[in-house]
Amino acid sequence: VFPSLAQAQASVANEVYRELGQPSVFLFCPTEYCSSLCSPSPSKSCYLLTLGQELLPGISIIWTGPKVVSQELSATLLEEVEGVLRRRPVIWDNLYANDYDCRRVFLGPYTGRAPGLMPRLRGLLLNPNCELQANFIPIHTLGSWFQSELRSCAHPDHAGMESATALGDRQGTQEGSYSPQEALELALLDWVAEINRQALEPGR
Questions:
Q1: Per its UniProt record, what Gene3D superfamilies does this chain match (predicted)?
Q2: How far is CA 12 from CA 36, 46, 124, 135, 166, in A?
């Protein structure tokens, strides 16, 4: 019936979206959801080009970055993805996901995300560790990153300093920008306080 997988998926997604009354949040996860799955690249993928053309504009498209688990996210990549999808992507961030290897638990700060990314995103979802308690630092430091991004949006002169500010632990070199190390220290202080509070609860 359909000449391509992308046209089939877009047709079904559009029909469901309309049937549900075009809700404000409607997420579509493409078969090619990161750069490493695209052939030959995101901007030249016939599959993504078709989705960008065929999917109704109110439908959000999920993207994980360069890889399924992306160590870094850059404004340049998001700009390329936005161009081909004709909309800003929703990042499904697998930085902390450990469902593929439950012997590992990720407790470091939210890092590797360039400053000034928020204007290039339609949203951001964090795929956490499978162990509930292990997500205090990931979620806490994500909150610190988000607050820093909000400040950048409020003061656009300080946004998009990716060229001046390297990814990773050096993100805190610009005044007011997100520092993974500072965010980690704040998260640890709050986590210890939370652990102590729980320890005092009856029955603990």
A1: Glycosidases
A2: 25, 18, 24, 35, 42
CA 23 remoteness from chain centre:
21
Of 184, 185, 186, 162, nearest in space to 174 by CA? 162
The rounded average pLDDT for each run of 10 residues, N- to C-terminus, in the chain (204 residues) is 97 98 98 96 97 98 97 95 98 96 94 91 96 95 95 67 42 68 97 92 80
Pick the CATH number of 5-154+178-200 from 3.40.630.30, 3.50.50.60, 3.20.20.80, 2.60.290.11: 3.20.20.80
- pTM here is 0.85
How many Å from the N-terminal Cα to the C-terminal Cα in the chain? 61
Residue 201 pLDDT: 85
Residue extents of the structural domains in the chain? 5-154+178-200
Q: Which residues pair with 27 in a beta bridge?
A: 60
In sign, the C-alpha dihedral spanning 47, 50, 52, 57 is negative
